[in-house]
Amino acid sequence: MNVITFEEIKSNADIRTYIEKADEALLALGYTEHSFAHVTKVAETAGWLLTELGYDEREAELVRIAGFLHDIGNLVNRSEHSQSGAVMAFRILDRLNMPPHEIAEVVGAIGNHDEGTGVPVNAISAALFLADKSDVRRTRVRNHDISTFDIHDRVNYSVRHSSLTLSDDKTEIALSLTLDTEYSSVSEYFEIFLDRMLLCRKAAEKLGLRFRLVVNEQVLM
User: Fold this and answer.
1) In the beta sheet, which residues pair with residue 215?
2) So what's the pLDDT on residue 37?
3) pLDDT tens digit string along 86-97?
4) Strand pairing report for 218-219 and 172-179
5) CA distance to 6, 51, 151, 165, 202, per residue, from 195 (Å)
6) CB 165 within 8 A of CB 201
7) Model-level pTM?
8) What tens digit of pLDDT does each residue of 199-219 get?
9) Most buried of 11, 75, 181, 219, CB within 10 angstroms?
10) In whole angstroms, how far apart are CA 197 and each of 57, 148, 149, 188?
11) What is d(CA 56, CA 179) in angstroms, rounded to the nearest whole number?
12) d(Cα 119, Cα 109) in Å, to the nearest integer?
């Protein structure tokens, strides 16, 4: 069995191709950016979270790996992409000779990262979910014609700043957003992201945390 590192996964040419092609498919469908900027941010945020909460370094490394791989299933189809991605990740990691118990952790996290069917089954999947759903930002919008924005474009474009932070006593995690209401209202944010925020709360609870959503300095959850 091999100790597979995050850096190895990031530099793997096959994996990078799958991520590029998955993002090309989403671009064709009109979705926001899901390429290296997104998956790297998710990986680093999830790793930071487990490290800050005192999990061992290998668990933090595994969640970084899961974060980098989590959206490759979009190559197959946007529908049920978390399950497709889990199967693809299994094949990749098995071929790299990763130990089965580590493959199980990574695959389980990827397979549960979508709010439609996902459940934060363990710490790795919970950290991945929080990191993924907190990546809301203007630079993910690829439609440059504001007049043709759909609701997802408007909501992402309206976010001028976002941050995921832990309280000093590490009992609470907060997603703080600064929304430019010229482009989207707070109600529109909830219209498309309410299910995500409710699962963020469950993911936080899995990590022994309380979840807060703060929009324009107002606590909404």
Assistant:
1) 177, 218
2) 97
3) 999 999 999 999
4) unpaired
5) 30, 27, 16, 20, 11
6) no
7) 0.95
8) 999 999 999 999 999 999 999
9) 75
10) 27, 26, 23, 13
11) 35
12) 9
* Confidence (pLDDT) at 53: 98
Both structure tokens of 109: 């996290």
What distance in Å separates the CA atoms of residue 74 and residue 81, rounded to the nearest whole number?
5
Q: Are 74 and 54 in contact (CB under 8 A)?
A: no
Instruction: Please state, as a whole number, how many other Cβ atoms lie within 10 Å of the Cβ of residue 210.
Output: 13
pLDDT given for residue 22 in this prediction: 96
Q: DSSP secondary-structure letter at 216?
A: T
Q: Kindly report the CA angle at 118 between 26 and 170, in degrees rounded to 5?
A: 105
Tell me which residues of the chain have a pLDDT lower than 50: none
Residue 207: both structure tokens together: 């990590």
The enclosing H or E element of 104 equals helix 100-111
Instruction: Give the side-chain half-sphere CA count within 13 A for 153.
Output: 14
Q: Output the pLDDT for position 115.
A: 82
At 218, phi and psi to the nearest 5? Answer: -110, 130
